[in-house]
Specification:
Elements (H helix, E strand, L loop, with lengths): L1 H26 E11 L5 E12 L5 E12 L2 E16 L3 E12 H7 L8 E13 L4 E14 L5 E12 L3 E11 L6 E12 L2 E8 L3 E3 L4 E11 H4 L2 H6 L3 E14 L2 E17 L2
Parallel strand pairs: 8-15
Antiparallel strand pairs: 1-2, 2-5, 3-4, 3-6, 6-7, 8-9, 9-13, 10-11, 10-12, 10-14, 14-15
Length: 281
């Protein structure tokens, strides 16, 4: 007899909750408004999911908490549960926009998911549940799941190619310094500000700034040509002897300022290499 009574009340509980869920599912709809990549840097980024909670009923609901799992390459990266003690008011017959930011740190991500470091784009999805109440009693939970992607940033690569000697006299030289920027990313970058210093054999021969807006396509490259008119009385007479050789020990230091679709980045560089001297005269 007691067992039958317990089963009866358990059945009533299941039916009651099913009715509550069915009603909540009729009243509330969760949809993806947009996704945004924010705060892109060499160390990581924030991927923000903006969700639209639509309340089609004449009653006010409250979002009392949510939980989600963030999956990258079919592996879990983050699991989060967040209660909202005060509850977020979901007005009747209205739409409420909420943001779910996911902080992605590249080092942690690469340690957790092998093979991702070599990729240019991370495929992901977020799935979870939102709990609702009427301000006094729980009204149930609704599930959500949305996919997305995010860039895996890689620092640009700079290569010193050659020094072209157009003319060389005892008093000075006309030179073209040639370097190359390679973009290893799966998205375009724009190098619109390059501050640099060039040294030959430890002698500073040129300091300047390139403000040309250089577009470098995904996994593409761009040549940098810096023309120099040297006066050996200014840069040092030793440079004349250095430039008479077949190659020169070159230091190229500075900073790239980059634009991406998600903001600006700074990339300091310092390269030391013996580059060939190509005589054109």
């Amino acid at each position: 007899m007691i067992k039958r009574i317990c089963l009866f009340f358990m059945a009533l509980f299941i039916i009651f909750n099913s009715v509550l869920f069915s009603k909540l599912n009729d009243d509330i709809n969760i949809s993806l408004k947009e996704k945004q990549v924010q705060e892109l840097s060499q160390s990581g980024l924030t991927l923000v999911f903006y969700l639209d909670i639509s309340n089609s009923s004449s009653k006010t609901y409250y979002l009392s908490g949510y939980s989600y799992r963030f999956i990258v390459d079919q592996k879990e990266y983050i699991r989060l549960k967040t209660p909202l003690e005060q509850g977020l008011k979901i007005e009747a017959l209205s739409n409420t926009l909420i943001a779910l930011p996911v902080k992605i740190t590249y080092d942690l991500l690469f340690n957790a998911i092998s093979g991702l470091r070599q990729k240019t784009i991370g495929q992901c999805y977020i799935m979870g549940e939102m709990a609702f109440s009427d301000g006094r009693r729980d009204k149930g939970q609704l599930s959500f799941a949305f996919n997305g992607e995010f860039p895996i940033y890689k620092a640009p690569e700079i290569e010193l190619r050659a020094l072209k000697s157009n003319s060389l006299t005892i008093g000075g030289a006309d030179l073209d310094f040639i370097a190359k920027i390679r973009n290893p990313n799966g998205f375009e970058i724009w190098a619109d500000n390059v501050n640099y210093e060039i040294m030959f054999g430890g002698h500073l021969v040129k300091a300047g700034r390139i403000t040309e807006d250089m577009e470098i396509g995904e996994e593409g490259e761009k040549e940098i040509l810096i023309s120099m008119l040297l006066n050996f009385f200014d840069v040092g007479r030793d440079v004349y002897a250095i430039l008479q050789q077949g190659s020169v020990n070159c230091n190229f230091v500075g900073e790239l300022e980059l634009r991406t679709a998600w903001g600006r980045l700074r990339f300091p560089f310092e390269l030391k290499k013996k580059v060939p001297i190509i005589k054109t005269n």
